Amino acid sequence: MKINPNFSAFRISSKGMSIQKKQMDLITENIANTNTTKAEGGSAYQRKYISVEFEKNKFDQNNLSGHMDVGFRANNPDHINPVLFNRQAATENINFEAKENVDKSKGELVYMPDHPDANEDGYVQMPNVNIVTEMVDMITASRSFEANLTAFNAAKQIAKDSLEI
User: Fold this and answer.
1) Phi and psi dihedrals of 45, rounded to 5?
2) pTM for the complete prediction?
């Protein structure tokens, strides 16, 4: 469902919450596979993470915050450019894309000669998941989700209050 450009704050906050939920799902998967020595492909589990790409608005090439400067031209009767006030054009080209990536770094080699996945020297390749890093990332994603939820609720309250005018 496409959200009306007048409610772009809802769209941006909901997209942020969606991205943070995906991030928390991947962190949960990483934590669950902390000791998985044989995953798909026969090697140790590889840590997954999300990267978010932001496509800048074509009307605002220099500023990621979305602030638009309005210029005045003294000799032109059309001194305010109406394109800058076109909310729909200004918000419909903001795109966020979350991509799932795999960390290709190697995990620790642990000496466990009795482990079924041990190599000929008795070492087992462990996953490259650090539980402390994952917990810090989980707290960060959780706080980001809460911040987006707060922004969403603030926009909702503003819309509600404007209807009461």
Assistant:
1) -60, 140
2) 0.70
